[in-house]
Amino acid sequence: MGLTFDDELSDSGNGSYAHGINGDPANIYGFGTWTDGPVAVSYLAEHLGVPLTDYAFGACCGGGSFGATINNTYNAAAQDDGQPAPSSSAPTPVWEGEPKNALFARNIPDRIRYNAEHLIELEAPYVFVANIYSKHKTPVMTTFLCPDGSCVDTWGGIIQSTNYAIKAALKSLRYASKLIYYDVFGFMVGVMEKKNS
């Protein structure tokens, strides 16, 4: 049994669809080029020939209800459910993202290695690890997150350097023979570069 937390398997996903920010045309998420997370998990499970359990419907960034928080209507009670946001009785802070992204990028290789090793010690026959996908090249990036394109190369560089560190950390794993490493970054770059062909 695999556990897949899949919001990031789609470029805009369920939350974006639910909140009307999934692009134009809105017939399918991300300008008709991607799928939502649960469908991506089903597709992956079919190709791997293993059962996977989906544990996501926008919950990672949830707000007062579910899904993306870009246009969620917050109130004081709902703020415990999601990320910081202004309320009518407070100053107006501007949310610019998690300030510990650099720390996350430094720590994630060791965390993944530890978790992979722990699963194998618990007698998992194999552990499948996909690296961080190429979000900087998705349509939602230049449409909603970085319209002038100025941050695309920076994001790409950070993602790639983190992926190199993840791969290096996994190579040092004493159970490396039980590890299945998947370069989702490289695969998705190839898909996106050929999406119009």
TrEMBL record:
It comes from the Eukaryota. InterPro entries: SGNH_hydro_sf. This is Uncharacterized protein.
